[in-house]
Amino acid sequence: MTIQTLHFVLTPEGGIREFSAEQAGLVVAGAGRLPEFARHRVRYLQVTISDNEVENELQVQTTGASIGFDGEGRLTEAGPTRDDEPITRFELDACVQWALKERPNLGVTFH
């Protein structure tokens, strides 16, 4: 089984930015900064893909959060998304499709 986790920030302007696991880990640990988000709240979306080759099964899990940054771009808060700033269906689908872009399209098997 292989597991891949992708990290996305959804900006108020409608942008979607992917971060590597290393970048995301540094920001969460307080060792990294994102100056472009200084004094802002943005939405975060994590997409985890589990590929079980033995059972020929692909699982996709998503989770979202609202995160805030101080004046220097350091993470200061993280919590559930707010009702007035939800992660839209379009944003969720766009991030999931981006996460799956390297996977071959083999068609659908119906059971």
Plain-language structure description:
This protein has 111 residues and is an alpha+beta fold. It has one domain. 18% of the residues lie in helices and 39% in strands. It has two helices and five strands. It has a five-stranded antiparallel β-sheet with strand order 2-1-3-4-5. It is elongated.
Could you give the topology of this structure?
Layout: E1 2-10, E2 16-19, H1 21-29, E3 41-52, E4 57-69, E5 75-79, H2 89-99
Antiparallel strand pairs: 1-2, 1-3, 3-4, 4-5
| Basic shape | elongated
**Unreliable stretches, pLDDT < 50, 5 or more residues?**
none
Look at the helices and sheets and give the structural class: alpha+beta
What is the ordering of alpha helices and beta strands?
Answer: EEHEEEH
**Average predicted local confidence, pLDDT:** 89
User: How many structural domains can be distinguished in the coordinates?
Assistant: 1
Strand content: 35-45%
In short:
The chain is of the alpha+beta class. It is 18% helix and 39% strand.
Descriptive keywords:
111 residues, 18% helix, five-stranded antiparallel β-sheet, elongated, 5 strands, alpha+beta, 2 helices
